[in-house]
Amino acid sequence: MTDVIPEQPLTPTTTFQQDLTTQGQRTINLIWEKTQSRIALLVVVIGFLINSLLVTLVVLFNKEVSITQLALISICLQFINLTVGIVIGFYFSRTNHAAIGGIGEKPSQEYKGR
Q1: How far apart are CA 88 and CA 82, in angstroms?
Q2: What is the CB-side half-sphere exposure of residue 52 using CA atoms within 13 A?
Q3: Which of 85, 80, 83 lies closest to 54 in space, CA to CA?
Q4: Residue 73 in contact with residue 54, Cβ under 8 Å?
Q5: Residue 94 and residue 36 in contact, taking contact as beta carbons nearer than 8 Å
Q6: CA 32 to CA 96: how far, in whole Å?
Q7: CA atoms within 13 A on the CB side of 20
Q8: Per-residue pLDDT tens over the stretch 47-83
Q9: Residue 29 CB partners (closer than 8 Å, separation 6+)
Q10: How far apart are CA 97 and CA 27, in angstroms?
C-alpha cells in the first residue's frame, strides 16, 4: 500500500481570526455539552431515588394502602417519570456533535440527516 504524499504542503484556507473563533465555539460547545450531560444524569438519578424511596416507604410503613394513597403515589410517580423522560428526550435530541454551532460564519457542510 502506498501513501499519497502531495508534492507541496497544503496552504491554510482560514485566517488566524477564523481559527480563534472556531476554537472558541468548540470550547463553549464542550462546556455546554458537559453541563447538559450532568443535568440529565442528575435528573435521572434523583427521579430514580424518589421513585424508589416512595415505593419503599409505602411498602414498609403501610400494611394496608388505601385507594387515595395509591392515587397520590401514582400521580407523583407519573409526574417524576414524565419529567425524567422529557429531560432525557431533550438531551438526546439536542446532542448532535456533527452540527456546527455558535455565532459567526459557518462553513458549508452537507446535511447528513439523523
Answers
A1: 10
A2: 6
A3: 80
A4: yes
A5: yes
A6: 12
A7: 3
A8: 889 888 887 887 788 777 788 878 878 888 888 888 8
A9: 101, 102
A10: 13
